[in-house]
């Protein structure tokens, strides 16, 4: 299996409200086997001074 994730910007740090765009490519596995499903999760986390926050922003489930 091969997975690649690309964002439009080479930036790994975004500010609140900034738009993140990109695409995901997934290939591999046995072609005679059903793919089943895949799940894509978009989440954010903060770090540094203060409380660490983690939140799931969106979830997409893709079925065969």
Textual characterization of the structure:
The protein is mainly β and 64 residues long. The protein has one domain. 0% of the residues lie in helices and 48% in strands. The chain has no helices and four strands. A hairpin with an 8-residue loop joins strand 3 and strand 4.
Detail the topology: elements first, then pairings:
Elements: E1 2-7, E2 22-27, E3 37-45, E4 54-63
Antiparallel strand pairs: 1-2, 3-4
- Lateral strand order in the biggest sheet: 1-2
Overall 3D form: elongated
* DSSP strand content: over 45%
Average of pLDDT: 83
Helix count equals 0
Helical proportion?
Answer: under 10%
Rg is: 15 Å
Order of helices and strands: EEEE
Low-pLDDT sequence parts: none
Q: Indicate the structural class.
A: mainly beta
Number of domains: 1
Largest sheet: 2 strands, antiparallel
Strand segment count: 4
In angstroms, what separates the terminal alpha carbons?
16 Å
Summarize the structure.
The chain is built from no helices and four strands. The chain is mostly beta strands and 64 residues long.
Attribute tags:
64 residues, mainly beta, two-stranded antiparallel ribbon, two-stranded antiparallel sheet, 0% helix
């Amino acid at each position: 299996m091969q997975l690649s994730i690309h964002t439009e910007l080479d930036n790994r740090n975004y500010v609140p409200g900034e738009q993140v765009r990109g695409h995901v490519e997934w290939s591999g596995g046995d072609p005679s086997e059903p793919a089943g499903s895949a799940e894509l999760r978009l989440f954010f986390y903060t770090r540094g001074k203060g409380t660490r926050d983690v939140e799931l922003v969106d979830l997409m489930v893709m079925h065969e």
